[in-house]
Amino acid sequence: MKRLFVRYSAVAALALVAACGGQPAPKTATVTPGGSKDPSNWPKDDRSMCDWRNKPELDHVETSGPGAVKPNVRRIYRTFGEADSRHRVLVCREIDTNLDGIKDVVRTFNNKGEALREEADTNYDGRVDVWISFVQGRLAEENLDTNADGRPDVWKAYTNGTLARIKRDRNGDGKPDVWEIYTRGRLERMGLDETMDGHVDRWDRDQLHLAQVEEAERQAREQMGADAGAR
Prior knowledge:
The chain is α+β, with helices and mostly antiparallel strands. The chain has a single domain (about 1-230), classed as Outer Surface Protein A, domain 3 (Alpha-Beta Complex). About 20% of the residues lie in helices and about 35% in strands. Strands 1-2-3-4-5-6-7-8-9-10-11-12 form a twelve-stranded antiparallel β-sheet. β4 (about 105-110) and β5 (about 115-120) form a beta hairpin. It is extended. The N and C termini lie far apart (about 50 Å). About 20% of the residues are buried.
């Protein structure tokens, strides 16, 4: 039981790092089907993930990111307001992260410039495998396809940008069979559906963490009592 809890804790910690902006090593050797590592052979159609073509109200800007000899970042802008209140806002940004001529990450924004949604093809097989949504610019949900079947099998929920819950589908039936509960971003307990009937059969808890929390609460209560007695 302890071994299983530690294993899932490690996975959760790595996932949290990624959600908070940790960058894995670029998969420079991987090429999306139809792409090319030779910039001179990049396809004419970069499979844009932003909806901007044939929309004159939108402007687009192409730039080159680190290591790129040709533009691999596209930003789409929309102009809002009139006269003195007229201003341009970023509404979509897409990137070719592995420099093969095909866009693989897109993020959309509202008219305040706050992030709304993000989709990504992280294994460069030509299909989206990460779906992220934001609320008021903060990370709210993140769904992952880890077995390349085109469907999410990991569902993450965030509260005020902090990881709160994760559901996992281990057997590929599209239904969760692991439930992880987090407190202040740390894994506190994990429920396992051993019989795959959709119900938790066993809860594993981080006893050390719970003991630390209880001790901190006890010390806080004692300090409050001492402060009250000193008045």
